[in-house]
Amino acid sequence: MATIVMLGKLADLAQAATIDLPLPLSKPLDWEGLKAALPSALAEALDDPRIRVAINGALLPNKAKLQAGAGDEIALLPPVSGG
């Protein structure tokens, strides 16, 4: 199981701030696998190149390199707005 944490508009799309996601035992969760496991509206929003991803508090320089395992926390970070 991995915990997916969504912030801002991503939490609104998911209708939840967190989702507990069962993981396959045979391989780590990658970016495409994560998107496939999420609700379609949320998965589509993740195609925005401004969306950032952190795993266990460490920001990934390239979200396509995601490799998550059991017990990991994956944070999905929308672009910062404000002024």
TrEMBL record:
<dbReference type="InterPro" id="IPR003749">
    <property type="entry name" value="ThiS/MoaD-like"/>
</dbReference>
<dbReference type="InterPro" id="IPR012675">
    <property type="entry name" value="Beta-grasp_dom_sf"/>
</dbReference>
<dbReference type="InterPro" id="IPR016155">
    <property type="entry name" value="Mopterin_synth/thiamin_S_b"/>
</dbReference>
<protein>
    <submittedName>
        <fullName>Molybdopterin synthase sulfur carrier subunit</fullName>
    </submittedName>
</protein>
<dbReference type="Pfam" id="PF02597">
    <property type="entry name" value="ThiS"/>
</dbReference>
